UniProtKB/TrEMBL annotation:
Name listed for the protein in its UniProt record: UDP-glucuronic acid decarboxylase 1
Keyword Cell wall biogenesis/degradation: no
Family matches, as InterPro entries: NAD(P)-bd_dom (IPR016040), NAD(P)-bd_dom_sf (IPR036291), UXS-like (IPR044516)
Cofactor: NAD(+)
Domain NAD(P)-binding: 4-278
A Gene Ontology molecular function term of the record: UDP-glucuronate decarboxylase activity
Record organism: Odobenus rosmarus divergens
Catalysed reactions, as listed in the record: UDP-alpha-D-glucuronate + H(+) = UDP-alpha-D-xylose + CO2
Biological process terms in GO annotation: D-xylose metabolic process; UDP-D-xylose biosynthetic process
Length: 312
């Protein structure tokens, strides 16, 4: 919008919140449509950033069918829209297409190691088939597609209790609760700050690169190191509590970003601690806001509970 583009946001708020975009409401270049991409959409656009899908394990395991529908029917609908209006579509894919990888770091030519019937499959396989759909539409219908394989990302406006590592640790540290580490904590992740990802997505959308591109920060940390770092940045006296390992939890995760560097001239620039401090500041403000509204969120457990109410 700052560059003069008109932006239409389409969201059904399954995991998002209006508060995240309310500061743009009323801007002449901004429009917000409450819509689920599982239903067809008829609008005139020239670029589509297809970011729809729950992305944290508790969210996508809570409603795996909804997650599958969003990634399959939703992607077909967006590709159909792209075909109708001649738009270019960027798919927000994921590092989860690599599963629990046997190759380290993960480059774009690695096919992955995914359990197709495990608890994470609705997301992993949903994104894998979404990629397949993109290239089928490109080959058969000539639709221009871009595919970003996004690695762990964090920053302000994350949902506090979405059950992801960063939000869990920050929330627990701020509330003086134990930081919950699943398994030994030796599994690794690579975290990028949200503004770096946005710059990467825009660069990819406006490039001529139609094959998948990893967007992530190759700086790798163990979950335990990460818990310790957040504890120190918050200044928290919280203990670290070890819980049993989550099923199919990838043991290693690190992007090979040589392709993004070479073809997009992109790499992450925000240092981890700087990004974390911004996220911590946001979470503090959110907790104050919630306290004033008499509501304190709790991090969601990493596992699905039986007998929970379902929303179809």
């Amino acid at each position: 919008m700052m560059d003069g583009h008109e932006v239409t946001v389409v969201d059904n708020f399954f995991t998002g919140r209006k508060r995240n975009v309310e500061h743009w409401i009323g801007h002449e270049n901004f429009e917000l449509i409450n819509h689920d991409v599982v239903e067809p959409l008829y609008i005139e656009v020239d670029q589509i950033y297809h970011l729809a899908s729950p992305a944290s394990p508790p969210n996508y395991m809570y409603n795996p069918i909804k997650t599958l529908k969003t990634n399959t029917i939703g992607t077909l609908n967006m590709l159909g829209l792209a075909k109708r209006v001649g738009a270019r579509l960027l798919l927000a894919s994921t590092s989860e297409v690599y599963g629990d990888p046997e190759v380290h770091p993960q480059s774009e030519d690695y096919w992955g190691h995914v359990n197709p019937i495990g608890p994470r499959a609705c997301y992993d396989e949903g994104k894998r088939v979404a990629e397949t759909m993109c290239y089928a539409y490109m080959k058969q219908e000539g639709v221009e597609v871009r595919v970003a394989r996004i690695f762990n990302t964090f920053g302000p406006r994350m949902h506090m209790n979405d059950g992801r590592v960063v939000s869990n640790f920050i929330l627990q540290a701020l509330q003086g609760e134990p930081l919950t580490v699943y398994g030994s904590g030796s599994q690794t992740r690579a975290f990028q700050y949200v503004s770096d990802l946005v710059n990467g997505l825009v660069a990819l959308m406006n490039s001529n690169v139609s094959s998948p591109v990893n967007l992530g920060n190759p700086e790798e940390h163990t979950i335990l190191e990460f818990a310790q770092l957040i504890k120190n940045l918050v200044g928290s006296g919280s203990e670290i509590q070890f819980l049993s390992e989550a099923q199919d939890d990838p043991q290693k995760r690190k992007p090979d970003i040589r392709k993004a560097k070479m073809m997009l001239a992109w790499e992450p620039v925000v240092p981890l601690e700087e990004g974390l401090n911004k996220a911590i500041h946001y979470f503090r403000k959110e907790l104050e806001y919630q306290a004033n509204n008499q509501y304190i969120p709790k991090p969601k457990p990493a596992r699905i509970k039986k007998g929970r109410t379902r929303h179809n």
